């Protein structure tokens, strides 16, 4: 920590806090590993945990038949990996957005970034005929960035700057606009509609390892950018004036953070479709455990958000067995009540 | 009518008010000249657009303009009479009624929340209708209920849910907005999930409804909305004074003697019902409820979004958009919601530009 950095209030409290935070993050990591194992075991065909572990480490073991191996190391492994990567991306993006806008209700889905990425993807596929992920992902980034900027400008207009209410409304307005345009494109082309509806439901299934390998560099770049912005976000939490007087260049910080959010959201939405509320809930849960400092909050969100997404996915596989409920629906119906409780609990002061 | 005080032709100075008192019935009041003039002009525009829709609507046949008005009243030659009364009038009536209801509902929501971006499209009511209709079309639940009934039920349920969840020793505008946003995301997720589970033909049907569509609409769609308008618009106009005090903030309104919670509940009930009936009839025609009150407020230079002018603006908007949707793209009959959606983009940009010019001002 350099002197130019604002010390987050909690850092001063000393090593007790650090131990507690380390403990929280370790527990989160262990839970994440357990959830990954559960995600490999649970599904329309249940596989005992010991068989799962064996299939992972020792596929040649006689207790592991070919079908089990295909399920565990194939479809479910990919699905779990998708959940971990996109979950981490969404959680990190949500935490960065909440810090950047000093807005407790920020979330890539709520603030229209996901809808922008969705619109970009559908334009690429429906109008330009780009079906490959690599072609369309740039459109997803472009859409995400444009939507984020539009929502922020719309939400910060008028008296009082970017209040939570105005930002949330601007997010829904932009989402509604992009949705209707997306539907317009999808309606003219049944094939595009068919692809669009599976993807827009927000699902972790139906992806292969190659897709993941393609988006991984973007996710990694976004994560690095976001994590490196943590000290600056701590300064911004004290207010724009204080942050400036601490030597932060606000424009540069905002650009970096916005770029990070765009990369993280665009890449994850291009794979799974829009998933709302994960990026909202996780930073809130964590803030009560590790405090508001972003150096702990951001890595913490990367650990906890995949767990939340995996838990929602597992729940979606279990409740309607043998059918499955898409993870985005589960996330919305777990996160929606959380959001409403948050709204009811207190006056919406900024972060 | 005998106007007691008239500021003669200086009344054209648009900030003037004209006071009037009638002997029989004994009524007195003031009329804002600009509001009245704009209202009349909007009514005239709406009527012209309505006639235009009837004359140039879908199908190749163009009704001669001289035949349109007689045909509306049941006169004129048989061909025009058939095309006007059987084919185009029902659809145009749905557009008129739904547009007016959306516009009025938008004005109500924007006054209650004191936010120019608030509208039933954003506060869960539309999404509730969408989820109910999607459930009906995909799962076949609520069999026996038509699409219209399902949409109405879904919209009203969502509206009541938003109000109830926002209630915490009274409601406030910002809580209604945020709870509405939460409910609308839940409705949206449910709709997307149902879409992904549907057969392709069902999905097309659902999506066709979801963007806001006036194809295949008839009198059975126009009538409920028209009845709702007939009952609720006068109520809203009577509540106008109280509604305008709410725009000053809860504390000031209470200080002026407005029963804040009861007024807000009454206004929201009316607004939700109007939005629900309109959505049930025409589907969620986006941005009409958002843009009409703002346009009407600019035109009348009123302090609060004006209900009557917003209703007329909304009706004109939907009628024009539907005509464009029917005729502008040749044989491709776009849903009206796509047109209003495309119009919504420049509207949002305009709001942005206006905010930049006005600096920090509201």
Structure description:
The complex is a heterodimer of chains A (about 350) and B (about 350). Chain A is mainly alpha-helical and about 350 residues long. In chain A, about 75% of the residues lie in helices and about 0% in strands. Chain A is built from 14 helices and no strands. The longest helix of chain A is centred in the N-terminal third of the chain and has 36 residues, at about 65-100. The two termini of chain A are about 20 Å apart. The relative contact order of chain A is 0.17. Chain B has about 350 residues and is mostly helical. Chain B has a single domain, classed as ABC transporter involved in vitamin B12 uptake, BtuC, CATH 1.10.3470. Chain B has 14 helices and two strands; from the N terminus they run ββαααααααααααααα. Chain B has helices at about 35-55, 65-70, 80-115, 125-140, 145-165, 175-195, 200-210, 220-240, 240-245, 250-255, 260-280, 290-300, 305-325, 335-355; strands spanning about 15-20, 25-30. A two-stranded antiparallel ribbon of chain B has the order 1-2. In chain B, helix 5 packs antiparallel against helix 11 (about 260-280). The radius of gyration of chain B is 21 Å and the shape is globular. The model of chain B is unreliable at about 1-15 and about 360 (pLDDT under 50). Chains A and B meet through helix 5, helix 6, helix 7 and helix 14 of A and helix 6, helix 7 and helix 14 of B.
């Amino acid at each position: 920590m350099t002197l130019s950095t604002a010390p987050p209030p909690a850092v001063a409290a000393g090593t007790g806090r650090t131990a507690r935070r380390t403990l929280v993050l370790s527990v989160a990591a262990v839970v994440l590993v357990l959830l990954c194992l559960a995600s490999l075991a649970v599904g329309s065909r249940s596989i005992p945990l010991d068989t799962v572990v064996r299939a992972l480490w020792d596929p040649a073991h006689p207790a592991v038949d070919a079908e089990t191996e295909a399920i565990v190391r194939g479809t479910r492994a990919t699905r779990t990996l998708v959940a971990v990567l996109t979950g981490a991306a969404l959680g990190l993006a949500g935490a960065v957005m909440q810090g950047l806008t000093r807005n407790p209700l920020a979330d890539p889905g709520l603030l229209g970034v996901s809808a922008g990425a969705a619109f970009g993807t559908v334009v690429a596929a429906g109008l330009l005929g780009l079906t490959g992920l690599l072609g369309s992902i740039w459109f997803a980034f472009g859409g995400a960035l444009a939507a984020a900027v539009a929502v922020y400008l719309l939400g910060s207009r008028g008296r009082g700057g970017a209040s939570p209410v105005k930002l949330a409304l601007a997010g829904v307005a932009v989402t509604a606009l992009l949705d209707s345009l997306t539907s317009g494109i999808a309606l003219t082309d049944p094939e595009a509609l068919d692809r669009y509806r599976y993807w827009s439901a927000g699902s972790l299934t139906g992806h292969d390892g190659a897709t993941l390998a393609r988006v991984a560099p973007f996710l990694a770049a976004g994560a690095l950018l976001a994590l490196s912005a943590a000290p600056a976000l701590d300064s911004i939490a004290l207010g724009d004036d204080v942050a400036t007087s601490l030597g932060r260049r606000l424009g540069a910080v905002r650009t970096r953070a916005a770029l990070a959010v765009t990369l993280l959201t665009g890449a994850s939405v291009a794979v799974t479709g829009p998933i709302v509320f994960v990026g909202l809930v996780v930073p809130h849960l964590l803030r009560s455990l590790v405090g508001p400092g972003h150096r702990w909050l951001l890595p913490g969100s990367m650990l906890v958000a995949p767990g939340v997404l995996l838990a929602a996915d597992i729940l979606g596989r279990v409740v309607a067995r043998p059918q499955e409920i898409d993870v985005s629906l589960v996330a919305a119906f777990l996160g929606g009540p959380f959001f409403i409780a948050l709204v009811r609990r207190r006056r919406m002061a900024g972060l | 009518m005998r106007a007691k005080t008239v500021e003669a032709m200086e009344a054209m100075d648009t900030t003037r008010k004209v006071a009037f008192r009638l002997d029989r019935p004994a009524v007195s009041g003031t009329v804002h000249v600009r509001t009245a003039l704009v209202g009349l002009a909007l009514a005239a525009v709406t009527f012209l657009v309505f006639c235009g829709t009837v004359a140039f609507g879908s199908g190749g046949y163009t009704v001669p303009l001289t035949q349109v008005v007689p045909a509306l009243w049941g006169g004129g030659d048989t061909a025009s009479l058939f095309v006007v009364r059987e084919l185009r009038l029902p659809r145009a009536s749905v557009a008129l009624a739904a547009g007016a209801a959306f516009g009025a509902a938008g004005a109500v929501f924007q006054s209650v929340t004191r936010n120019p971006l608030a509208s039933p499209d954003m506060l869960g009511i539309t999404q509730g209708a969408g989820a109910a209709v999607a459930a009906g079309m995909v799962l076949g639940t609520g069999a026996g209920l038509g699409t219209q009934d399902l949409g109405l039920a879904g919209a009203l349920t969502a509206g009541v849910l938003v109000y109830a969840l926002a209630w915490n020793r009274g409601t406030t505008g910002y809580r209604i907005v945020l709870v509405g946003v939460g409910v609308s995301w839940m409705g949206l997720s449910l709709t997307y999930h149902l879409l992904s589970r549907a057969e392709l033909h069902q999905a097309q049907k659902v999506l066709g409804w979801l963007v806001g569509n006036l194809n295949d609409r008839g009198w059975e769609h126009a009538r409920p909305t028209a009845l709702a308008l007939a009952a609720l618009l006068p109520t809203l106009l009577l509540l106008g004074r109280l509604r305008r005090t709410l725009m000053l903030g809860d504390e000031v309104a209470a200080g002026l003697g407005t029963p804040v919670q009861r007024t807000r509940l009454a206004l929201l009930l009316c607004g939700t019902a109007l939005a629900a009936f309109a959505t049930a009839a025409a589907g969620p025609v986006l941005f009409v409820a958002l843009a009409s009150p703002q346009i009407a407020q600019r035109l009348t230079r009123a302090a609060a979004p004006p209900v009557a002018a917003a209703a007329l603006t909304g009706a004109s908007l939907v009628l024009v958009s539907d005509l464009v949707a029917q005729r502008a793209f040749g044989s491709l009959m776009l849903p009206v919601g796509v047109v209003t959606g495309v119009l919504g983009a420049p509207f949002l940009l305009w709001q942005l530009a206006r905010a930049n010019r006005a600096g920090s001002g509201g």
